[in-house]
Structure formats: structure tokens, C-alpha cells
User: Which sequence fits this backbone?
């Protein structure tokens, strides 16, 4: 499985940006996966931004609720994060994640767990 992220860039505070992630290599079961966006700023841990599950439930980090929207297209094997009212603190590398199964707490990963290469989002003040 490969995940290819795209759409990052530089935007002014208050602006909008959309990033997408396309999955390849496991198209037959894409719909069974949870799809998430995580981000990591320099010197910080990677944290959850938003997730859309196989049943299409959605969950967002408190810091982005009301500003970001995650969506998925199972026909195209893609997940998209629409970001609005961006703030400088949203600056980070954004990673898409495709995962399902049981979570191994020791290794902090799921049975099937794939990450994209990351895309930089920079919000200027």
C-alpha cells in the first residue's frame, strides 16, 4: 500500500487550504480502512487532526473543530482535509494514515497501518 499526499503549501492566516491523500495497492479493501490526518510541528509529537472511519464517523482534534473538514471518496481511494480559518499554529507537516485492525500498544501501530510521506502546511501571520 502506498499513500501519496498532495496540496500543502504556504497560506496567510485566515486563509484556506485543501490537502488530499490517494491510496494505491489495496483498492479492494480501501473502504474497510479508517483514514486519518495527523500533523507534526518541529520538536513536537505527531498528533491526530481528524479521522473518518470505515463507517464514515468523523472525529476531530479540539483545536480544529469547526475549521477543518475531513472527507473520503471510496470510489477514488482518497481522503481530503479541507482547512479553513487557518492559524499560524496549524503550521506542521501533515501526514495521512490508513489503518485498521487491533492496536498494538507496545509498538503503537495497528494490524494494517500505513503512512503517507507528509506534506508541509505553513501558515504565515
Assistant:
Amino acid at each position: 500500500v502506498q499513500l501519496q499526499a498532495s496540496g500543502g503549501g504556504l497560506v496567510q492566516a485566515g486563509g484556506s487550504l485543501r490537502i488530499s491523500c490517494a491510496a494505491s495497492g489495496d483498492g479492494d479493501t480501501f473502504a474497510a480502512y479508517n483514514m486519518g490526518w495527523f500533523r507534526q510541528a518541529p520538536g513536537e509529537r505527531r498528533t491526530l487532526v481528524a479521522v473518518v472511519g470505515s463507517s464514515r464517523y468523523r472525529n476531530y482534534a479540539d483545536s480544529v473543530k469547526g475549521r477543518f473538514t475531513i472527507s473520503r471518496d471510496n470510489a477514488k481511494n482518497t481522503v481530503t482535509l479541507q482547512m479553513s480559518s487557518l492559524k499560524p499554529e496549524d503550521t506542521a507537516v501533515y501526514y495521512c494514515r490508513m489503518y485498521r485492525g487491533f492496536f498494538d500498544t507496545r509498538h503503537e501501530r495497528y494490524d494494517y497501518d500505513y503512512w503517507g510521506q507528509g506534506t508541509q502546511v505553513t501558515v504565515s501571520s
Residues 10 and 122 are 5 Å apart (CA to CA). The chain has a mean pLDDT of 94.
